[in-house]
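Figure S7 source data.
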Amino acid sequence: MAELTMVQALNLAMKEAMREDPNVLMLGQDVGQDEGVFRVTEGLLREFGPQRCIDTPLAEAAIIGGAIGLCYKGFRPICELQFDGFSYQAFHQIEGHARRARTRTMGRYTCPLVVRIPYGGGIRAIEHHSEGPEATYAHLPGLHVVLPSGPRNARALLREAIFSPDPVIFFEPKALYRAFREEVPDEPETMPIGKARVAREGKDITLVSYGASLRQTMEAAEELLDEHDIDAEVIDLLSLSPLDDEMIQQSIRKTGRGVVIHESPRHCGVGAEVVARVVEESLLYLEAPIKRVTGFDTTIPFFANEMAYLPDAGRVVKAALETVRF
Amino acid sequence: MPRETIQIPRRIESLSILPYEGELDTELEPKIPDNDLRRLYKTMLSSRKFDERCLLLQRIGKIGTYGPTKGQEAASLGPMYAIGNDDWFVPSFRETAAMLWRGWPMSKILLWWGGNEIGASPPEGVNDLPICVPVASQCQYAMGIAWGCKLRQDGAVCVAFVGDGGTSEGDFHEALNFAAVYQAPLVMVVQNNQWAISIPRERQTRSKTIAQKAIAYGMDGFQVDGNDILAMIVATQEAVEKARNGGGPTLIEAQTYRLGMHTTADDPTKYRSEEEVKKWEPRDPLPRFRKYLKSKKLLDDKVEKVIEEEIDGLLEQAIAEYDQYEKDPYYMFKGMYAEMTPALRRQMAELREYVEGGESSEKPRGSYSRVL
Ligand SMILES: Cc1ncc(C[n+]2csc(CCOP(=O)(O)OP(=O)(O)O)c2C)c(N)n1
Ligand SMILES: [Mg+2]
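Tokens for the predicted thiamine diphosphate complex:
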């Protein structure tokens, strides 16, 4: 067992996969000598050489589009995009090809690629470096969308993503890259994509979250217990497409109350999907309307005001109290 | 003939005027009024000092990540001398000197790097676009502006900037193609500072020059010594005149060098040698221009001292303005559409109630209390 940050855990998952399977490639801007702008690719060039850890010219569409072709040639590329805001430069390749390859060729060609995208706000970054595009990708059939919340699940999910037979959009919450360390087992570990995790057991209300917002959610759960005697269950989604329907419904049926928390905009967000599913399947178990605590339906402000946009524990507590006191 | 060489009716020229050693070639020397030369120098020096100060401000956490422009001042400033206020200037993110020339207050540029939208709102009186972060995306609207100038027949031109790394993006190529097809009055300046973060120019493109990419689109390309303010002025003036007269777009490759780090988040010692930086230092555009002005007796110790003091005063004033700026956490809602949607109005009220404590809510708390 080693205590790793998320950056180190992701790095470990890639090294393990690259050692095991020569078809696994790493490509992106500044991933070689520079070891990635967040240093997630540290040591890859040294260990695997420039044929497998590939610095590309500056063109996201070519990185993803090229990786699709590499898939057709039997490789398993891991693509690193530098920031969430620049994933759109590759959007037509992801939408038009990566997600459709299997369907349109009736399985003759598939796209087992991983697109790693540093995700979200809270790091005082300049414009376009703090975006929350997960719902945009989760809306596209044919993709898996994963968003881990800690070093251990990040490492396990990245391994799963690399060996997944289908394309995976792998969001990495920047605010958590070096926020804390976690014990990570020595042996490679996987977690199935599509499964959520109970981050905290409770009986009074279900708080559903993922990524960096999970921290504020856990903080809120502590406060609800300490100050209001409310015992919250916290569900960490981990996978946004597919969604772990079963776990969400079970928990909501148990508690009868829910709040969904994420930092990206509310409109057509993951929270909307969670609420819709609960209403469809578990309406009669509900004691109160489910609330959403999210980023607003605005562009995330430049960083001087980003904390006003990002949900904090107080907003979660407030919504939970309103739900409980409904 | 079934097989022969196709003659391409374009060629690529290069230009350098100011020596960094040896004598000036007076035949190439442009006639620029003394006062303008002094003003150009002052702007260049302002940009350099602003840059140095920003590195300090970043270190003490007053602004966020900062991208220095040290060594590239001439490449962005020269082209500005070739256009007027009715023309359009489309920056990337390493054109501080150009922005200062166009009248962007230092405080505004500071506010941009300090995370405030006001830093992206162009000053009155010039047709400028703000700093653009998604690499090369600005090439497309720059092309559209130039196209619009042609459709309006207003005689204006557009000067746009992109980096050497940016020339790999589809946006760059698509924009140049459109500009050439429509013969739009666009001058696309590539600040080839030899690096795109850790990727050197040779691994960005196999082309011998960036300027030659122009040939493929059917436009002229010009490789210019980007650390030579005079060469940048002359080359851009020619391109602007041609564009105004219906001659279409030009691609200018400014050969320069990023003397500093990519941004304050970057550690260039990971990927480039100190020797390489040392090799470029003597070509630093600022001392080169200074030497020229001194040889023309336009600068002496006394004048320099006056200029320096003036700039220092402006810097202090800009920082004071920056400090006094009152940020508005509700701007995100108000600035979104011409008219706020009902959802935005509700969400703004929700935030206000939470931050300021409405009837039903408890005291302001959490990170929001830090916001105000
Ligand atoms: C579309 C896009 N991809 C990636 C980035 C991250 N990034 C910022 S600057 C940069 C390198 C740009 O190199 P170049 O165009 O040569 O400009 P320079 O930084 O040298 O001025 C990169 C990769 C970005 N801002 N936009
Ligand atoms: Mg560059």
